[in-house]
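Input chain follows. Return C-alpha cells only.
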Amino acid sequence: AGPSPSSGHSSSSSSSSSSSSEFFRTLVSRLQGDFDNYRQVERDRSEGMLPREGGGHEWMHCTVVPVEGRALEALNGAIAAPRGGEGEGEADAAVLSAFYFDGVPERIFRFRMYALNYCRGGDGDGKGEGEGEEGESARMRLYTLGPSVEGPLRAAPDAPERWGGALMASLLREDGNEEGSSSASAAAPRPPPFRLLEGCDVLWTPTPHRTRHAYAARNRPERALHAVMTNDGAVVPSVMKPGTYLRVRDELSLWEDELWINDRGFAPECDRTDDPGNIGEDDWVYGNRRGVPYAMERAARFSTVDGDGGDDDDDAVFAREVVDAALAWTMGSSWRDEDEYCERMEAVGGPSAIMNIPGKK
C-alpha cells in the first residue's frame, strides 16, 4: 500500500533523497544501540541529588533497534494503510525503542516505534532554525505499539537483536499471511499494530536551536544532531494514565556515542514549561526539575550480520556489539553477575523506579 496523499511523504522521492543525504545517513547510523545514564546518576548522588524534587536523575536505559529489510516493508504497510484509517505515509527509516529503569530490561516502562522521513527545503514544517544550508531536516513520528506487536517483544527483553524478526512475524500474523491464522480471527476487530501519538512529532536538524539546545554548549554541540518537538508544549493524552492529559516538552541531542534527552511532562494547565525554576511541584509529572537532560552514553550498537544464507534472504540480522565495556552490565542479567549488580545499585542509593514515585525516597 502506498502512502496517504495527505502525509506529505513520497516513498520514492523521499527515499532517494534520504539515501544521498549525509545528514540523514548520520542520523540513522547513530540512532540505534544501547544508551545508559548510570554515570550521570553516580555524579548526582555524590552531590546529594535524588530524583524529582531532589534535582537529580533517575537511572534509565534506552535500547534502540533498527527496523530494516522485510520488517521495514511490513511496518510501512501497517502505517501507510492501517485498518480503519487513511495512514500517515511510509517511513524512510524506522526504529523500535524501549526504556527501562535500574538496568532491568524485564521492566520496560515505555515501548515506541519511531518512523523517520527525510525533509528538504522546509518540508519538515519546522521554523527553519537549526536546519542545514539546504534546509535539511528529518521528521520523526512517534507510535505506541499494539498488543500483537508489543507482546512478542516484551517476551524477549534481553534479546533486542531479535526484535526485527519478531516484529515481522507479528505483522504477518496481522495480515493473516502466516500459517495458523484463520479467517475468523482475521475478521475480528483488533487494535492496530501501531498507533500514532498525535501532536508529538519530533524534528531533527544538523545544528542546534540557539535557546532550546543551550544545554549542549559545553559538549561540542557542532558535533551533534539536534531535535525538538514540532508542536512544543502540546497537550496530549497520557499513555501511563488513560483519561488524563499532559503538557509535553522535549529536546534531544545525538552525538556519535551520546544521546541527551530532555523530556518533561507537566500538568496540562501549566504554561511556564520553559522556566523550570518557577514551576510548582504539583505541575511536574516527570523529567528533571533543573531542566538538565538525561545524559545517556552508548553501551552498545547493533551491526548487521549475514542471515541464514537463503537466496531470498533480505532480512536484517543484527549482532549486539559492546562499545563501552564498563557499561555492558546495564544491559541485563546476562551481562553481569548478581554481586556486581547489587554493588552498583547500592552505589546510587537504590532503585530509581522507587525514588521516582512521589512521596517515596
